[in-house]
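The step that takes the researchers longest sounds almost clerical: writing a folded protein down as plain text. The outcome of that step, for a single protein, is printed below.
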Amino acid sequence: MIKAFIDWYLSALADGGYTVVALLMAIESSVVPLPSELIIPPAAHLAVTTGQLSLAGIVAAATVGSWLGASVMYAIARHLGRPVVERFGRYVLISPETLARAERWAASFGPYGVFVARLLPVIRHLIGLPAGLVRMSFLRYSLATLVGSAIWSTVLVVVGVAAGQDSALLAGDLHRVTIWILGLLIVLAMLYWAFVHRRMQRQP
């Protein structure tokens, strides 16, 4: 499944370029389970091996896309409120308990918590909702989102560049991209468990 997505994505990049990166990252910053680890490294790999895109352009497009998606999530939560978010959140696997813990996270740590969340899996997709519910300053929320997303996008670009130096990939063995991505996902899952999940579970 991952290989099929990457094959489609690399083909779409040939026509859509940075716009495709930005749109997919906007989706990634919503509740749709589309990991950024599947978006940025393949684009960086394409940039390194073909010169079709620039690494700086990928980071910029990914950052803007992340901010757009995160801003939509913030606006939905702020203007529609908790009852609507709780009612429809269950359709995207967001339980009221998870939302409540995330809301306490946003209330406790403010923009700093948003910044940290943008660097971690799972919570990065949810942080816009609690930030909107606690009515965090949109300016501060946006700045934290932009900075965090830019750093995270840069990290993933580095992963893509490293993958682009893989001799098998350079020979056209694109399924090796999945090895890099899966390894990164495992590391991120461990970080999420260590720094976010356990802390949120301890919250009353």
About this structure: Residues 2-202 form one domain. The chain has eleven helices and no strands. Confidence is low (pLDDT under 50) at residues 169-174. The chain has one domain: 2-202.
